[in-house]
Design brief:
Order of helices and strands: HHHHHHHHHHHHHH
Helix content: over 70%
Number of domains: 1
Number of strands: 0
Shape: globular
Strand content: under 5%
Length: 301
């Protein structure tokens, strides 16, 4: 694939921006805010970013039964379920460990794609899946791996989040976008997610008024999560158009890498040799299951 060298600059910026959400999530959940309250703001702010990107096109987002089903699926498996899992696990695990588990997304995608007939069996890519399993074993097996070995079960909880994303990805590959652009898809699913979560948090009394006592560190972290998620995803969409889906897919490596680095810098986290080994093995596994050179964009039929 011929890719202009300068595209590596926005690639790195997008990866670094997206990776910043990892320590921000840790700060947000450590502040004692309810999980659904934080998740509402993440989805709502992402919807605002998508709306800002959508309005200049002066188009009308038409709702059909197929699109509503698509929005609902993305809302469930791409937002609410993985969000609840991530925030719940992040309270108990170092942010760097969370960054490593998120790298399981492409490793989970591949076996699901084989089972559903979207991908063909390849020994190299199966080896990548095994590398992902070894990485998780390194995180939860050795006594010296996690700062608190009793939290090992939360690593297993955390990997359910990338499993949700993998289910979402394969559903979109099968279902298509029904003629919508990725920005329109993000807008529709985020708007629906904001509505559903809004009803829940207001009825439960778990809404977080960020403006009540001024913007504190935890509130600032929530704003970072929502805004960086929206803008990074928009940048990712732009990068697909400029360099192709295979090149843009390299951002997965950078999100994990910068998630670990940001956590070290901002949260002063330190990691055992087992966590660093898990990080290296996971990156190798993601490399083995990376998209094929003949990857095509999802048909918007």
């Amino acid at each position: 694939m011929n890719t202009k060298t300068w595209l590596f600059i926005p690639l790195i910026i997008i990866g670094a921006t997206w990776g910043l959400t990892i320590p921000a999530i840790k700060v947000a959940v450590s502040g004692g805010y309810p999980v659904l309250g934080v998740l509402f703001w993440q989805v709502f702010l992402a919807a605002i970013v998508a709306l800002i990107l959508f309005l200049p096109k002066r188009r009308i987002l038409k709702l059909t039964q197929k699109r509503i089903i698509l929005f609902g699926w993305i809302m469930a498996f791409g937002t609410i379920l993985p969000g609840i899992i991530t925030y719940s696990a992040a309270f108990h695990l170092p942010a760097g460990v969370m960054a490593i588990t998120i790298a399981m997304v492409p490793i989970f995608i591949m076996p699901i794609a084989i089972l559903t007939g979207h991908e063909s069996y390849q020994k190299k890519r199966v080896l990548g899946v095994l590398m992902g399993a070894i990485s998780i074993i390194l995180l939860i097996g050795p006594q010296a791996s996690l700062p608190d070995p009793t939290k090992a079960g939360f690593v297993l909880l955390a990997i359910l989040s990338p499993l949700c994303y993998a289910v979402e990805d394969n559903f979109i590959a099968y279902f298509g976008l029904d003629g919508m652009t990725p920005v329109e898809t993000l807008l529709g699913s985020a708007a629906l997610g904001s509505l559903v979560l809004g009803v829940i948090v207001f009825s439960q009394g778990s809404f977080i008024p960020l403006w009540e006592n001024g913007i504190e560190l935890t509130d600032f972290a929530i704003l970072i999560i929502g805004l960086t998620t929206g803008f990074a995803y928009a940048g990712f969409i732009w990068l697909i158009g400029q360099g192709g889906p295979v090149f843009a897919g390299l951002v997965a490596y950078l999100v994990t890498f910068f998630g670990v680095i940001w956590s070290m810098i901002l949260l002063k986290e330190t990691y055992s040799e087992f966590i660093w080994a898990a990080f290296a093995v996971m990156c190798f596994g993601v490399f083995l299951v990376r998209p094929r050179n003949d990857v095509k964009k999802i048909q918007t039929k």
